[in-house]
Amino acid sequence: MRIDPARLASGLLAWVRRHRRLLIVLALLSLFFSVLGYFTNPVSLPGMCRIYG
């Protein structure tokens, strides 16, 4: 069973258009925490590596 690439792309594009607001909010939230982590001082407490990865 093969999936038509054009049909797959149009379906993906339709999904992105339906969830555009959610994707923008998630991207801004990710950017906010990235900038926050960049400008904060590093913390060396036990277990913090599990949070910050």
UniProtKB/TrEMBL annotation:
Q: What is this protein called?
A: Uncharacterized protein
Q: Look up the domain of life of the source.
A: Bacteria
Which organism encodes this protein? Thauera phenylacetica B4P
